Sequence to fold (123 residues):
Amino acid sequence: MALNPNFNQIGEMFTKQYYAMFDNAATRGELAKLYNTEQSFLSFEGQQMQGTAKIMEKINSLTFQSIAHIVTSIDCHPMFDGGILVNVMGQLKTDNDPPQSFMQNFVLKPMGDSFFIQHDVFR
Fold:
């Protein structure tokens, strides 16, 4: 497989979609569709889990009532297998807490005519 020439556009569109879904309690559960049942990994503040069920269990266990990801930079890189590495930095605002910096890396893997999140690292 070759480098995806649209890596930047795909990575940026993915990032906007991901955080729009995450920040809306009504659509947060739909994030499950972006992960793979067995081939997705999440590292959340050093805690690691594998598979959609465990990842969504972690996301659903977070205790905030409201959340907003304010993205300040997105860096996308093509991978030789057709995948895309996406590095996101920004500010995270939960409830009435002061904003905190966050960094999140995604490895998007091609599957058919779409992508799934193979690796998700959040700090």
Helices lie at 7-23, 52-61. The mean pLDDT is 97. The chain has two helices and six strands.
